[in-house]
Queue: 2 jobs
Job 1
Amino acid sequence: MNEASNNTAGMNASDTEIIAQKRREEYIFHCKYDPLPNANAVISSMTTLDVVFYVILILMTTVIIALFIDEVFYLKAHIKLSYRRRLSILQAGIPPVFAVTSLMGTFFPAGFNMIDFVCSVYFGFGLHAFLVLMVNYYGGLRQLLKRFEGRYVNINTGPFCCCLFCLPSFKMTKKTFSVLWYATFQAALLRPIVLFFQGVFQTDRSLKIPGMLYTGLLVTSMLSGMWALVIFRKASGDFLGRYRVTAKFFNFQMVLLIANLQPFIVTVSYNACSLPLTAYAKKIILNYQITIVEYFFLSLITRFLYRRSSDNEQLERVDTMETTLEENGNSEKATLRAMEDESSSEADNRVDSIV
């Protein structure tokens, strides 16, 4: 009897372990391969601590939006140059756009593709707009080229060529500036195109394209745009110091690191799972939660950098000998045209008197 009971107990223990092992394997399978949860599943899985944390995130996002609205009214009232004002508003809009979309991502992790699409497109346009804003600080392209006459610009800068000291410098001409201009413009143009095709092909699944190809194109596009912007920013440090261009640029770089480096760090270092939230869903939600907190502080920095009436100032115009001769030539042409008009009018009067 004792032996039979021991055998039965041993069989029950082994069966219990097998069942437990199957349940663990099933749990791990669901954590890895279950689809991303919808908003109802996210809300139903919240604990009391999660609710408090979400309330804090909502308040932070509301403050970011309020600061942006106040910044818009301030820029409209104090920045008289309309084009510069619009570019500054575009830069100041980066924190609220990222914060609002990230808050949406914490509730709707399944829509992360559309959220990343919106953020990438806005950031691409912001990257190019920052270059255009610096040109506007100069007073236009003609004034920019005049200030760079006889000066050489280094290209051994990050993120590509910071260690390549053998690279030659170049003169800032209209042609070389157009290269920098198109390098930043392609970041605004190429990113939405690549993300659009990625969303279409990954949803359809009939054409299998490796995800590393999309990532490589996006990273190369963004880094090349940043490289052109770094070159122009370093060359402009002597001229645009009053506009705090360096601080504005480093604030822009923080946005780049948060948008591109942080998701990779979260993916590598965090691997928790609590169904119905899969491990992938938890990573997406955690990344968006951290992003809201970071952009709350970045919005304060952005407010400090762009809420300045000194941005309304204009650089002193540079007049070279060529422009002086050109202006004199234009004035002489205008005088000749006026004399011709006078002679023609006198001739007409004589004809009228004869008739």
Note: Confidence is low (pLDDT under 50) at residues 321-328, 331-336, 338-355.
Job 2
Amino acid sequence: MPLLVLDYSWTQTDSTLYISVPLKGTKAGKVDVISTDEYLKVHFPPYLFEAFFFEPVDDDRSAARIGNDCVVITLPKRTNKVWEHLMIPMDNKEKMKEIRQRALFKYHEKLSSDSIQKAMKIHAENKYALETVVKLEKQERDRIQKIKDAEQEKITAELAAWHFGQTEKVERDAQLKLQNQKVKSDQLRTETRRQKHGPSDQGKGKLDQRGNSCAKSKKTQDELPPPRLSRNIQVSFTPRVFPTALRESRLPEEEEWLRKQAEAWEAVNVDVGELKDLKEEERNPDWLKDKGDKCFAAGDYRGAVNAYTLAIRLNRKMPALYSNRAACHLKLKNLHKAIEDSSQALDLLTPPVPANAAARVRAFVRRGSAFCQLQVYPEGLQDYQAALKIDPNNESLLVDTQRIKDIIQGSAVNPGAQ
């Protein structure tokens, strides 16, 4: 049973009430103060001070200062007047009990309201921070796009100039060819006249030179090889790997996905001079992925991150590497990195086809989980709903999606869907 403090003191003015309670050697960190408009409680085990006010006070403007071995409580009055007593008569136990219960209920209600407001404030701050990051990234992408556009315009102008030069060259060649044909025609007419009337000595010399030139040209034409014979080339096509009928399939998307997969297996970066000390198997992204999977299964999440990161440096087009590294970052609470890796995996998992449906579900769930742990619930809900569109019969996804909806609507207390 607590010991009641009776050696307190109080003073008042027309508008304010001051109460001083001695702490009796108790540290400030162990003092618990509860105050409402009609009740005051100061508890520092094993001592207890309670005050059932004679008139109501303004609890919203009240303040408590702990120090110098005492607690000083400042309580503005609701009505500006001098009180006859500090507390109501202590003989009515039932009324005191009722006031105490009502005061404790109001106090807990206030704590709950403060907690909700604090959570909402944190959520708003996180959302603003995320929007700021997205805005900065968009500005950076726009800047890079402008550079690309300028470079493309420059290349287009150079290509147009090259085409113009090629056109002029073709025209010059055509004119030169016409001139050569005209010269040959003149030579032929001259030769014909010579045969009819007989050439002069000077003309003979010129005709001999022209005759030798024509003979050389004819000899060169005779030495040209004949054209090659035409042949038929047999082409065998790779069979379809998707079992659906052609009229029911998404043939262009499936072929695009197969092409990207083939490029991903061949896209190994050769410019990794700093990795020259690695063993031969350590230069293989598939071997590094298997190693990362084993580390993740064993709980060595940092080792798994290192393995996936090295594999990504060797091959940046394998979506499984980014998705698996996002799972590691979730375990390590690197939530922003998990969002970044999941987004990169989703960018690579395009176009959406049945062959990559399971991988897209995993990437959406991992990014949605990271958003929810950051208390950015609307964005997390969007990712979980996107995963449900791919796998609508997944019971676990249905439960987690409903839990996030409850949190957003304020009917759940536990934050974050894991």
Note: The two ends are 44 Å apart (CA to CA).
